[in-house]
Amino acid sequence: MNNTPQPTAKSLISPVILFAATLFISATLMFVLQPMFGKLLLPLLGGTPAVWNTCMVFYQTLLFLGYLYAHWLSSRLGSQRQIQIHTALLVFSVIALPVALPPNSAPPTDGDPTLWLVWTLFLAIGLPFFVVSTTAPLLQKWFSHSGHHSSDDPYYLYAASNAGSLLALLSYPFLIEPNLGLANQRLIWSGGYIGLCALILVCAISFWRSQADKEDEDVLTDAGIEPPSTLEQLRWLALAFVPSSLLLGLTQFISTDIAAVPLLWIVPLTLYLLTFILVFSTWADRIRPWMLAAQPAVLTVFIAYSFINPATLPYWLDLILHLLAFFLAVMVCHGELAKSRPHPQYLTRFYLVMSFAGMLGGLFNTFVAPFIFNAVYEYPIMIVAALLLRPGFFNGKWFLQPIFPLLVLIVGLTIYFTTEQLFDYLDLIGGALILLAGLSYSLRHSPIGLGVLTGVILLFTLGLHSMASNTIYQKRTFFGVMSVRDTIIPDENQRPETVRELYHGTTKHGAQRLTAANVTTPLTYYSRPGPIGQLFAEFDGENQHWHIGAVGLGAGALACYTKEDQLWKFYEIDPLVVEVAQNPAWFTYLSRCNKQAEMIVGDARQSLLKEADASFDLLIMDAFSSDAVPTHLLTREALQLYFSKLKDNGLLAFHITNRHLALKKVLADHVNELHLAALMQEFKPETDVPLVVATDWVVIAKQPERLQRLQQSRLGHWQKLPLTFGLQPWTDDFTHIIGIWK
């Protein structure tokens, strides 16, 4: 029980309301600051994953340092000294307001910008973010000495903190971003931060009043409480590390292997935050048995369908199964974490270990996994790890639990390595794996047995899928999973023909027919019957000496429109795409059609800044597929940059085929506001030609006369862009994905 005295005077407001509200606002500000400042950086550094990874590591590291500061402050100093130091920090942090990029910020143009980015983050938001990160553990520790009847277990206030995080997560894309530009966001956030500092000071006064009758020495020491053992702290570390890694792994997996949908990453993070709210709430003890019982039951269905036989499910049902299994796994881990929370004397140590584990999870998924795995294998690994962390690991004869799974592994490996015609047995083996998934439920009370058997099933499942697939090359980088696949299609004479395809996750980025007659034929979105083919055909008489820039390389199909005296530059953000497209073992568009094409690796907008003005005859923008929409390439400032690099009669071609977003609305608004001329074609092939697909293109010029050839073309139906109403213009200060959702 808490031995602290009752407050010396009655507070005007309940300490619970005061501290909970402060924690709620603090978490809200933290989760708003991260995407807001990311958007501020976007035009300077572009949309490379390395930028986001660096930002996330910075945030996680600063969060850990904030928790370390709170632990040091509350465990080493008395109440008066704590308040003095923290008040000085609050006042000092206000000098960083309003949140903004430092004056004359410009990343280095001839080297790695990582150190510049970290320094910029520190100067711009380092102090405010650090203060916000200290709030959760420090205020909960102060509340534990408030004398309130619930102060002997202040952990339920963590639910208020995560509720604020959840509100900010859902509010930013759906409420804040659509209605406020970055300039106003920065000012409002700065005002909110000043309000938070005031609330923290009120909490400090409440804490000081509750300690007024004690001497200002180590008032928080309780010699009767045993400190948590090293083994218990390692268990906290594991219970926090696995959900953190599982969150990032699932997010990567669903965008790579299920559906590349914009903002889909919000759903796993929402569930992740919801688990913290539930396990630290007053309902936790009633919820916990249901979660423990539901996890192995859902696991059976999840493994049988989502891993062993995912083709039988529509993608939305497969997605639901993954999210449900993830939610239950994280609920069990966080439930055990909350159940093992220590006495409030060691509260800050508990949160320090949690934050350290979260940072390790982020570092593992961001910097380790992409270099040791060629696919998102950390996701199934963490599914197994979450099962091993179920309660009862050492119950009974724990060393006997993995005997059955290990026998299954030995038998499976024997069949795997001794059967010459393994493909004849795939259906039989698949059925056996489904049967084993059902049997796994019988091991629900044996964490080791359940985890090992699930690991064995996943091992064979992933191996069989790899053997049965047509993937001939696969590699993973910061930018995701890139794969080259061979697919069999019927040709014009209905004979089977092998086609080489390039995939980034689930999105196809190019294809090439391998027959001699068709090996240099551009396919998919770049076919000759399609809009880009029509553009080259209509301007065939004047484009012999054009200087052409293409943003986005893919398999290199555009290179086969090259003429002898043309100069081509490809701008590609992912070095692996360049490596694959230039390797004749995979694709031969570049080697056959344009060996001299210049490859410029990096963010296109930053790369184009270095080009001479009025130097291009044609710019092709091809970087807007699936969920990977680099919004900074679609702003008004970006369009003005493109036209500054084009000659007066130059053309700007946008490939805007997208399953989820109506990008034509953004371009239509720019064309109207900048007094440009534009034509659009939503192409649908009239004949069943292999790999000639439906695709949407927009061509923009300074004068309508320049587009007259396309408008009068008999090759395709070009039309003016539709009028837009109520769409706020996209600028470097304002973009809004939800506003153009189809």
Entry summary:
The chain is an alpha/beta fold. It contains 22 helices and 11 strands.
User: Given the C-alpha coordinates, what overall shape results?
Assistant: globular
The number of distinct helices, counting runs of at least 4 residues, comes to: 22
Question: How much helicity do the residues have?
Answer: 40-55%
Fraction in beta strands: 5-15%
Question: Can you tell me the number of structural domains?
Answer: 3
Mean pLDDT: 85
Biggest beta sheet attributes: 7 strands, mixed
Number of strands: 11
Radius of gyration: 29 Å
Strand order of the largest sheet: 7-6-5-8-9-11-10
Which structural class matches the secondary elements? alpha/beta
Quaternary structure annotation: single chain
Distance between the termini: 57 Å
Unreliable spans: 1-9, 215-221
InterPro entries: MFS_trans_sf, SAM-dependent_MTases_sf
Keywords: Membrane, Polyamine biosynthesis, Transmembrane, Transmembrane helix
Protein name: Spermidine synthase
Transmembrane segments: 12-31, 51-70, 82-101, 113-134, 155-175, 187-208, 236-254, 260-283, 290-308, 320-338, 350-373, 398-418, 425-442, 448-468
Tell me what you see in this structure.
The protein is an alpha/beta fold. The protein has a seven-stranded mixed β-sheet with strand order 7-6-5-8-9-11-10. The protein has a four-stranded antiparallel β-sheet with strand order 1-2-3-4, with no helix packed on it. The longest helix has 31 residues, at 15-45. A hairpin with a 2-residue loop joins strand 3 (496-504) and strand 4 (507-513). It is built from 22 helices and eleven strands. Residues 1-9 and 215-221 have low confidence and may be disordered. Helix 2 runs antiparallel to helix 11 (347-372) and helix 7 (230-258) crosses helix 11 (347-372). It folds into three domains: 8-149 and 172-216; 232-469, no CATH class; 503-721, Rossmann fold. 53% of the residues lie in helices and 11% in strands. It is globular, with a radius of gyration of 29 Å. It starts with 14 loop residues before the first helix and ends in a 31-residue tail after the last helix. The protein has helices at residues 15-45, 49-76, 79-93, 114-143, 157-179, 182-210, 230-258, 266-279, 284-308, 315-339, 347-372, 378-388, 403-418, 426-439, 447-468, 531-538, 575-582, 589-593, 604-609, 636-645, 663-673, 708-711, and strands spanning 471-477, 480-490, 496-504, 507-513, 547-551, 567-572, 598-601, 616-621, 646-655, 677-683, 695-701.
